[in-house]
Design a protein that fits this description.
Layout: H1 10-51, H2 56-67, H3 79-126, E1 132-135, H4 139-151, E2 155-159, H5 162-171, E3 175-177, H6 183-188, E4 196-199, H7 204-217, E5 222-226, H8 233-239, E6 243-245, H9 247-260, H10 262-273, E7 280-285, H11 297-300, H12 302-306, E8 308-314, E9 320-322, E10 335-340
Parallel strand pairs: 1-2, 1-4, 2-3, 4-5, 5-6
Antiparallel strand pairs: 7-10, 8-9, 8-10
Helix pairs in contact: 1-2, 1-3, 9-10
C-alpha cells in the first residue's frame, strides 16, 4: 500500500523556500523599524535635553508626544527647540509608519502561511485511501502514531484538545480538530475510504459511542478499541469493534507469560520490536485474484514466491491454524501469517 504522504516535490520546496525568504525579509524589516524607533527616541530625548535643558522625564514626554503626533503638551520649546521638533516629527513619523507597515505585513504573511498550510493538509486528508483514523492522541494514540510513522502507513488523528492540536501541528502530523464521535468529523477524515479506526478516547462510553457511529457509517471498517474496563469488551464487540484491547488484561497476560514462558515472550518481542533484527512478521490475504487460491502450500511455492515462512493461516471464520502442513489448501478469505526478511532499500 502506497503512502499518500509523499515527500514534497521540487515545486513545493521552491514555494516553501520563497515563503521562508519572505518571512525572514519581513522579520529583518521589523527589526530595523524597532531599532529606528529606539534611535529616534534617544535622539529626541538628548536633543531636548541639550537644547532646552529640561528634565529627563520632560524630554521623554515631549519626544513621545512629538513622534506620536499627539501634540498635547504644556511644554513651550524655544525657536531652536521648535526647529528640532519639526525635524523630529518628519523622521519620527516616517520611522513609525515604516515599522507599522512591516508589522502588518508580518502578521498578514504569518496568517496566510498558516491558512495555506492548513488548507494543503485538509486537501491531502480528503485524498487519503486505505488509511488509519486515530481518535484521541493520548498515551495510546501517540504510540500508535509512532508505530505507523515507522511503518510508513498513512493516517490521520482526530482530537479536540487545543494543546494537543498545537503539538500535532508543530510535528507535521495530519490532524482534524473536532469531536470524534460526530459523524461530520469522521466523514471529514474520509472514513468510508479508511482501512481501520483506532478508538482511544478518554472514556469507555465515548469509545462505545464512537464505535457505534463509525460502524453505522462504514460497516466493513476494521475498528480497534482501547478499553479501560476489561468487562466491557463484549459490549464493544456487539457494537461492531473487530478488536478490543485492554491494557489491564494485556499487561496481566504478558506478566503471566513472562513467568511461565519467558523465552517465548523474549523471542516475540525480539522479532516484533527490535528494529535491528532482520525479520518481519506480515500478513498476506488470499483474494479472488490471488494465484495461490485453491492451491496447497507446496503447490503455491510460498517460500519461493513471497520469500517467507508461513507460521499460521487465519481462516475467515476466525479460526487460526498454526504451523500448517504443505498439503493445506488455501481458500478465499484466508490470511497467511508469515515471517520474512525485510526488503532492503537501495
Amino acid at each position: 500500500m502506497n503512502n499518500v504522504w509523499k515527500e514534497p516535490n521540487e515545486s513545493v520546496l521552491i514555494r516553501c523556500m520563497r515563503f521562508k525568504g519572505i518571512n525572514e525579509h519581513l522579520v529583518s524589516g521589523l527589526r530595523k523599524g524597532v531599532v529606528g524607533i529606539a534611535m529616534v527616541l534617544c535622539i529626541g530625548v538628548l536633543g531636548y535635553r541639550i537644547i532646552e535643558g529640561w528634565r529627563w522625564i520632560d524630554c521623554l514626554y515631549m519626544t513621545i508626544n512629538t513622534v506620536s503626533t499627539v501634540g498635547n503638551t504644556t511644554l513651550n520649546p524655544s525657536d531652536a527647540g521648535r526647529i528640532f521638533t519639526t525635524i523630529l516629527i518628519l523622521f519620527g513619523v516616517g520611522v513609525m509608519a515604516y515599522c507599522l507597515t512591516r508589522l502588518a505585513e508580518f502578521l498578514f504573511q504569518r496568517s496566510l502561511s498558516n491558512a495555506l498550510g492548513r488548507r494543503t493538509m485538509m486537501k491531502k486528508i480528503t485524498q487519503l485511501k486505505k488509511h488509519t483514523i486515530i481518535c484521541g492522541y493520548g498515551r495510546t494514540g501517540s504510540r500508535v502514531v509512532a508505530e505507523l510513522q515507522a511503518a510508513r502507513k498513512p493516517f490521520v488523528v482526530i482530537d479536540e484538545n487545543e494543546d494537543v492540536v498545537k503539538g500535532l501541528d508543530k510535528q507535521g502530523i495530519p490532524y482534524i480538530i473536532g469531536d470524534a464521535t460526530e459523524e461530520e468529523t469522521l466523514e471529514t477524515a474520509n472514513i468510508c475510504k479508511a482501512d481501520s479506526l483506532v478508538a482511544a478516547l478518554d472514556s469507555d462510553p465515548d469509545n462505545l459511542y464512537l464505535t457505534l457511529t463509525a460502524n453505522g457509517l462504514c460497516d466493513d471498517l476494521h475498528i480497534i478499541v482501547r478499553v479501560h474496563d476489561p468487562d466491557s469488551a463484549r459490549k464493544f464487540s456487539k457494537a461492531g469493534a473487530k478488536r478490543v484491547v485492554s491494557p489491564i488484561s494485556s499487561g496481566a497476560s504478558q506478566i503471566a507469560q513472562l513467568i511461565t514462558r519467558p523465552s517465548v515472550v523474549d523471542l516475540i518481542e525480539l522479532v516484533t520490536k527490535d528494529k535491528s533484527i532482520a525479520l518481519q512478521v506480515f500478513e498476506y490475504p488470499i483474494g479472488e485474484d490471488s494465484e495461490m487460491l485453491g492451491k496447497s502450500l507446496s503447490e503455491a511455492r510460498v517460500r519461493q514466491t513471497l520469500g517467507c515462512m508461513v507460521i499460521a493461516i487465519k481462516h475467515p471464520d476466525g479460526h487460526t491454524a498454526f504451523d500448517p502442513g504443505p498439503d493445506t489448501r488455501l481458500k478465499l478469505g484466508d490470511t497467511l501469517v508469515a515471517i520474512r526478511q525485510p526488503e532492503t532499500e537501495e
